[in-house]
Design goal:
Distance between the termini: 21 Å
Strand content: 25-35%
Order of helices and strands: EEHE
Number of helices: 1
Shape: globular
Radius of gyration: 13 Å
Number of strands: 3
C-alpha cells in the first residue's frame, strides 16, 4: 500500500515591529494564494497585509509545512 503525503505551503508575512507576529496564508510552492478558497475574513486580512508590506509587514516568504 502506498501512502501519499501532501506537501503544503504557506505565504508568511512577518511583522516589522512585533517579533513572532505574522500573517500566513495557504499557497502553492510558488507563493500563489487561491483567494476563492479563503474565508471572507482571510481575504480581507490578505488584502490589508498586502497593502501594508514595507510599512507594517516584511515581504513574504514561502514556507513548506508538514
Amino acid at each position: 500500500m502506498n501512502a501519499t503525503t501532501t506537501t503544503t505551503y504557506e505565504l508568511r508575512f512577518p511583522s516589522l515591529f512585533d517579533p513572532g507576529r505574522a500573517f500566513a496564508f495557504p499557497c502553492d510552492e510558488k507563493g500563489h494564494v487561491q483567494e476563492q478558497g479563503l474565508s471572507e475574513r482571510a481575504r480581507a486580512n490578505l488584502k490589508r497585509v498586502l497593502a501594508a508590506v514595507g510599512r507594517e509587514f516584511a515581504s513574504p516568504s514561502v514556507k513548506r509545512c508538514g
